[in-house]
Amino acid sequence: MILHNSMATSLFLMSLLMLFLDSNPCTALSWRNNSLVDDIGIPCPVSPHPFTMCKSEAEAYGYPCEDHKVTTEDGYILSLKRIPHGHDTDNSTGDQKTRQPILLFHGLFVDGVSWLLGTPEQSLGFILADGGFDVWLANTRGTNTSRKHTSLSPKDPAFWDWSWDQIAEYDLPAVLEFVYHHTGRQKVHYIGHSLGTLIILAAFSEHKLLHLVRSAVLLCPIAYLSRTRSDLTRLAAQMFLAEAVYRIGIHEFNPVGKVAAQLLAKVCGDPKIDCHDVFSALAGPDCCLNKSTTCAFMLHAPQPTSMRNLIHLSQMVRSEGVRRYDYGNAKENMKHYKQPHPPLYNLSSIPTHVPMLLTHGGQDFLGDVPDTRHLLKTLVRNHDSDNIEVQYLPDYAHADFVIAYNAPRLVYEPMVDFFQRH
Ligand SMILES: *[C@@H]1O[C@H](CO)[C@@H](O)[C@H](O)[C@H]1NC(C)=O
Ligand SMILES: *[C@@H]1O[C@H](CO)[C@@H](O)[C@H](O)[C@H]1NC(C)=O
Ligand SMILES: *[C@@H]1O[C@H](CO)[C@@H](O)[C@H](O)[C@H]1NC(C)=O
Ligand SMILES: *[C@@H]1O[C@H](CO)[C@@H](O)[C@H](O)[C@H]1NC(C)=O
Ligand SMILES: *[C@@H]1O[C@H](CO)[C@@H](O)[C@H](O)[C@H]1NC(C)=O
């Protein structure tokens, strides 16, 4: 029984890790020494500098950076970073009032630094600041810089008692409203990646936040997950592995994530196992990662999340439709929702006038093509054709959209054009 449990847990851990790596780290990085070494032999720094985005990333490149704190209605104190204008030596900074605010919302297992990992020419956060925007970087509850609460400590299980429902319901409006008010009531352009797309689709489907958002760009839009091409993710969901981990009393993912990283190092260290195959099967091959950026990415991940969030995502892999978290029985669901089944987020009811750009990749096993097609069918059919655009990149997988060396040309330029039109 115990063996069973730990085997199941290991498998689960591996698949989770894949979700966020979603790259081919073994082609980019060697794990053979239990450390990250890129394939031209330059080791990643042994211990990353304590991560505070403003100091270590933005200011290091000469960008201004502000650190704001935003308290959600349910008490989480979130860190919200701002790069108000471009490089300090850049004279085109202009009048702050003319700079449109943009909120960047990261995905699962990472945080706001994922937008700043490469050089200023490569990273979306810097590119937008240099391009004349007022850039804001969200960090969801639980991640390294957002681990405070008005009454709870991360050591309390209650601190982790949430899924992405609550990110959509509390974190997202809190940061959007903060940006809106702080910039003199300017509507905000939104950019989400992965889970950062699911939460805004969920909010829009309930006709929320529309008065705050000027347009939305969805990178690797995630909503439906039941057709995922990631076999191991599906297996983990079908084995109820997240649920098993939760039941043994682990409510925060992070301790699990550390074990997973070690496990992965072992697996990739075994010469009999071809890591490339393992990774491709799990998450799909990224085409265009710069090794040094990948290295930085791996050092900043996995960021903590709650086990309940992972349970919610497994529920979505197991079933059609996008629903709230299922408490597992009619009685509990009645208590929370006043109905025996969790309520549906009806994506067909997203208002048809919201300007949206959806960008997805052919190699992405998570924001996979069949599920994305289904989402597009739901969204595009009724949407004002002037207000929806779809971009497809056949070679791109999940992480490419955030850290690929050619993303500035392929993804970010069209995105800025889109903002200029809306
Ligand atoms: C492992 O690390 C040691 C020292 O850090 C180095 O000498 C050795 O070549 C490495 N081995 C491999 C397989 O990378
Ligand atoms: C920027 O502005 C300063 C003073 O306003 C001026 O001396 C400098 O030449 C300008 N730099 C560029 C690159 O235009
Ligand atoms: C990758 O990044 C490094 C430094 O960050 C840079 O020197 C190199 O030119 C980049 N490679 C590509 C292909 O962009
Ligand atoms: C998060 O913070 C902890 C402790 O402050 C640190 O040990 C860890 O490396 C950090 N993780 C990341 C991914 O930045
Ligand atoms: C979802 O919304 C659409 C459009 O408003 C509506 O026609 C449909 O009946 C709704 N579906 C459900 C299950 O409520």
UniProtKB/TrEMBL annotation:
Pfam families: Abhydro_lipase
Residues in the signal sequence: 1-28
Biological process, per Gene Ontology: lipid catabolic process
InterPro entries noted in UniProt: AB_hydrolase_fold, AB_hydrolase_lipase, Lipase_euk
Domain Partial AB-hydrolase lipase: 58-117
GO molecular function: hydrolase activity, acting on ester bonds
Top-level taxon of the source organism: Eukaryota
Active site residues according to the UniProt entry: S194, D364, H398
Keywords: Hydrolase, Lipid degradation, Lipid metabolism, Signal
Family named by the database record: Belongs to the AB hydrolase superfamily. Lipase family.
Protein name, as recorded: Lipase
Source organism: Triticum urartu (Red wild einkorn)
